[in-house]
């Protein structure tokens, strides 16, 4: 499925060092894993621009997504601090923030005309939170729960591709949860709208174990 951001609509020219290398790996793997992963949510033909830049994040996280210029169809992924992160962890951050960007784009482009049959949790969360006039906290809450529902496995599959499929996809699930557990997300709503808990025990240890033995680091040393 095509992604909502065309090739000439993604500006990654400011990226440097391991950040640049991690993003290029995502671009080169399996027909552009970055676009394919965030594109699982999208439709072709977008008018929106996605930009990468180095800037601080109010959450003090490694990366964050800004929709302050969304009225002009611009969405920005800010890189705050990726020092000490592995290539797999940086790639995970790009995927996580790319999904935020795609959610912003989708809701902005469709307004209230969202099909609840296709995106029931996102639709209900956004309407309940009244995102258009609501707080950033409500926006984050809706987005992170939707990501838990729909994107943990796509992120895990993407990181598995980068890691040359050394393990089963279940081994890479912690990468999908890396940006969600901090927001109190410990499970997801399945297709029957039943809440399924995910075991977050030793999540960081599992991430580091895979990342520290990955060949993805080769050629990305600054």
Task: State the main characteristics.
single chain, 222 residues, alpha/beta, four-stranded mixed beta sheet, two-stranded antiparallel sheet, 8 helices, 41% helix, 11% strand
Structural commentary:
It is a single chain. This protein has eight helices and six strands; from the N terminus they run βααβββαααααββα. The relative contact order is 0.14. It has a four-stranded mixed β-sheet, with helices on one face. A two-stranded antiparallel sheet has the order 5-6. Helix 1 packs across helix 3 and helix 4 packs antiparallel against helix 5.
Total number of strands: 6
Percent strand: 5-15%
Tell me, briefly, the overall form: globular
What is the average per-residue confidence, as pLDDT, rounded to a whole number? 78
Over all CA atoms, what is the radius of gyration?
17 Å
Count of helices? Answer: 8
Residue runs with pLDDT of under 50 for 5 or more positions: none
For the termini, the CA-CA separation is: 34 Å
**By helix and strand content, what is the structural category?**
alpha/beta
Give a short account of the largest sheet.
4 strands, mixed
Percent in helix: 40-55%
**Order of adjacent strands in the largest pleated sheet:** 1-2-4-3
In N-to-C order, the SSE pattern is EHHEEEHHHHHEEH
List the helices and strands and how they pair.
Blueprint: E1 10-11, H1 17-28, H2 33-38, E2 49-54, E3 63-66, E4 74-79, H3 87-110, H4 120-129, H5 136-150, H6 152-162, H7 173-177, E5 187-189, E6 195-197, H8 203-211
Parallel strand pairs: 1-2, 2-4
Antiparallel strand pairs: 3-4, 5-6
Helix pairs in contact: 1-3, 4-5
């Amino acid at each position: 499925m095509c992604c909502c951001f065309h090739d000439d609509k993604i500006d990654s020219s400011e990226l440097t060092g391991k950040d640049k290398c991690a993003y290029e790996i995502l671009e080169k793997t399996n027909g552009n894993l970055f676009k394919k992963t965030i594109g699982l949510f999208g439709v072709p033909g977008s008018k929106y621009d996605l930009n990468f830049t180095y800037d601080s994040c109010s959450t003090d996280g490694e990366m964050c997504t800004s929709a302050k210029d969304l009225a002009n169809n611009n969405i920005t992924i800010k890189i705050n601090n990726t020092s000490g992160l592995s290539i797999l962890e940086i790639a995970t951050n790009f995927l996580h923030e790319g999904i935020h960007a795609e959610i912003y784009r989708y809701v902005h482009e469709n307004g209230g005309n969202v099909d609840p049959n296709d995106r029931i949790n996102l639709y209900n969360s956004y309407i309940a939170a009244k995102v258009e006039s609501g707080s950033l906290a409500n926006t984050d809450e809706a987005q992170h729960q939707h990501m838990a529902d729909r994107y943990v496995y796509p992120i895990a599959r993407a990181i598995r591709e980068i890691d040359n499929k050394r393990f089963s996809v279940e081994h890479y699930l912690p990468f999908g949860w890396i940006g969600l557990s901090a927001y109190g997300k410990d499970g997801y709503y399945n297709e029957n709208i039943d809440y399924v808990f995910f075991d977050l025990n030793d999540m960081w240890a599992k991430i580091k174990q895979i990342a520290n033995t990955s060949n993805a680091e080769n050629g990305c040393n600054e």
